[in-house]
Design a protein that fits this description.
Strand order of the largest sheet: 2-1-3-4-5
Mean pLDDT: 92
Strand content: 15-25%
Low-confidence stretches: none
Number of domains: 2
CATH class of the largest domain: Alpha Beta
CATH topology of the largest domain: Transcription Regulator spoIIAA
Number of helices: 10
Oligomer: single chain
Length: about 270
């Protein structure tokens, strides 16, 4: 019996890419073959972005292109997931009826169940990622959601409040990535510098940095910190960066504006 063929289109940020990789890992574990183009597939999954106008337009255009393939009979199913369907599920279902199902950003088990028929429980381990990046680097998502509540940002609406992953789970994933040959890991979250503040036993990004540095093999050469918040960059983070040779000596950090008045209106 031939495997069901699926094409994955991942739009938006690196955090959404990790969501796509988790889903691909689950699909591959459940006898789904991943194709390189939508035209080769029976099912197309579009992981959308709903953050900026231009990203929303790209997402809608991509869904419409896939819908045309379904109308012409080139594909059998069209599934949409991600931030746009979190934010506008009813509007999208009304405007694009060709879509078979809409899912949120983290409904990986539900999507695999829908496509494969196999049921999962909350106690089943989450699928391990099938990387969509070149083999030498991978993103390492350490938290989901955001607590900052900036006036211009819809991330808490789409992704919820911050939910940090335990250090042990992050280290375990990083070790598996290292076993796959990953040399460079890019640490990402909506606000990586507030990592761990929401955990029952509070920890800090500095604790995670030390744990990763102690646990990873020498084959992992670089750790890069992305999505830092200027108000949350602490001395302990700087000291951890200075103490670990693998952490690259720069921060991906948005200044955003020089005016205190504008920053205040942005709630930054």
């Amino acid at each position: 019996m031939s495997k069901h063929k699926l094409n994955m289109i991942s739009l938006g940020c690196a955090k959404a890419l990790v969501d796509s990789e988790i889903l691909l890992g689950g699909l591959k574990q459940n006898d789904v073959e991943i194709t390189q183009s939508p035209e080769e597939a029976e099912t197309v999954v579009v992981n959308t972005c709903g953050f900026l106008d231009i990203a929303r337009e790209e997402s809608v255009e991509t869904i419409l292109q896939a819908a045309e393939l379904k109308k012409s009979g080139d594909i059998e199913q069209l599934v949409v997931m991600g931030c746009l369907s979190e934010r506008y599920p009813e509007e999208l279902a009304y405007e694009i009826p060709e879509v078979d199902r809409f899912f949120g950003s983290n409904n990986h088990r539900d999507i695999v169940t829908f496509l494969s028929g196999k049921e999962f429980t909350k106690d089943d381990p989450l699928f391990f990622r099938s990387l969509m990046t070149p083999n030498h680097y991978a993103y390492l998502k350490i938290a989901e959601g955001c607590d900052n509540g900036c006036s211009f940002c819809s991330i808490p609406i789409m992704r919820g409040l911050q939910k940090s992953r335990p250090i042990s789970a992050i280290v375990s994933e990083a070790q598996r990535l290292a076993d796959q040959g990953v040399k460079e890991m890019l640490i990402i979250a909506q606000d990586s510098t507030s990592y761990g503040w929401d955990l029952e036993q509070k920890v800090y990004l500095s604790d995670l940095i030390y744990s990763l540095d102690e646990s990873l093999p020498e084959s992992v050469k670089w750790l890069r910190i992305h999505y830092a918040h200027p108000a949350h960059l602490s001395q302990r983070i700087i000291e951890a960066m200075a103490a670990t040779d693998r952490v690259c000596n720069y921060l991906d950090i948005p200044i955003q504006h020089a005016s205190d008045k504008i920053l205040s209106s942005m709630r930054r």
